[in-house]
């Protein structure tokens, strides 16, 4: 695995690359990609950072794992490559956007356009073995992505963190609530959404209200 991360993040995270846990993680990922089918493609592992520079981060959405089906994962949480059917969680995200903002349901499930507007779409674990959800958890990725959250919290102000579901909500402890905004709700997965924990959270309009009130441009969701 090449640690080919965008320049704006290199200064922020370079200390992590020298730590033993990260070196072990690199070896693990290299080995996994050499003997198994893994996602996303190697060039897309750090895509979340490529499409959203550190200086541009206004919103952070936290996912857990990349999609583990063929051609789905593109390195941005909840996002799929163009031409792919929308996975269930993404369908529910788009349904909420549609009702919250009175917008048409989007055709493309590729969320690169969000990232380019300052939305960091960060999975806690950046790689996965094909058809095996969670297969690369607890190998070091979470230590790395927790550090990403801490660096954003420490070095920026007025960032909006969208924490969806129990896993993401646990990351609230890494965020300075005096400097940033945290919006929490259930996860958009069908299990949670169908129990009433997702729909109606209005996170997309609330995010834009906060951004506009602080003098930032709203996100075109």
Automatic annotation (TrEMBL):
Presence of the UniProt keyword DNA damage in the record: yes
Primary subcellular site in the record, as a coarse category: cytoplasm
PROSITE patterns named among the record's database cross-references: U_DNA_GLYCOSYLASE
One GO MF term: uracil DNA N-glycosylase activity
EC class (word): hydrolase
Catalyses which reaction(s): Hydrolyzes single-stranded DNA or mismatched double-stranded DNA and polynucleotides, releasing free uracil
Active site: 65
Main function: Excises uracil residues from the DNA which can arise as a result of misincorporation of dUMP residues by DNA polymerase or due to deamination of cytosine.
Family to which this protein belongs: Belongs to the uracil-DNA glycosylase (UDG) superfamily. UNG family.
Protein name in UniProt: Uracil-DNA glycosylase
Source organism of this protein record: Polaribacter marinivivus
